[in-house]
Design brief:
Keywords: Hydrolase, Purine metabolism. By secondary structure, this protein is mostly beta strands. The protein contains one helix and ten strands; from the N terminus they run E-E-E-E-E-E-H-E-E-E-E. It has one helix at residues 66-72; strands at 5-11, 16-17, 22-29, 32-40, 46-50, 58-64, 82-88, 95-96, 99-102, 105-108. The strands form two sheets. Strands 1, 2, 5, 8, 9 and 10 form a six-stranded mixed β-sheet that branches. A four-stranded antiparallel β-sheet has the order 4-3-6-7, covered by helices on one side.
């Protein structure tokens, strides 16, 4: 079964899925952040089970360890990590947070 949060990371330089990217999920509060889960992208650049199946409404954060990913490939990067904050609403059952990355740029959107 798919968890409440999933992601798909693609490497725009190679044109391939970004396998082996460490990803973490955080619950963000006004004065702190609580780490909830850790995972690593699979051979297809996906994490299908990041965190619990149910999340309370609020602000969450997904962090991608892009510096380590590019360092493992001998590529310099401007971003040691990419952090994406997003809101979870009551009644929504799934959030897909994809990331398209390169050493000097990235993009994301609300996936389906």
């Amino acid at each position: 079964m798919t968890s409440h949060i999933t992601t798909h990371v693609l490497d725009a330089v190679s044109g391939l899925p970004a396998a082996g990217v460490a990803v973490s999920l955080w619950r963000v509060r006004t004065d702190s952040a609580e780490r909830m889960a850790d995972a690593t992208t699979d051979a297809d650049g996906r994490v299908k089970d990041l965190g619990p199946q149910v999340l309370e409404p609020g602000t969450y954060r997904v962090t991608f360890a892009t510096g380590d990913y590019f360092a493992d490939r001998g590529v310099a990067t401007f971003y040691p990590s990419i952090t994406i904050d997003f809101s979870v609403e009551a009644g929504r059952d799934h959030y897909h947070v994809p990331c398209l990355l390169s050493p000097f740029a990235y993009s994301t959107y609300r996936g389906s």
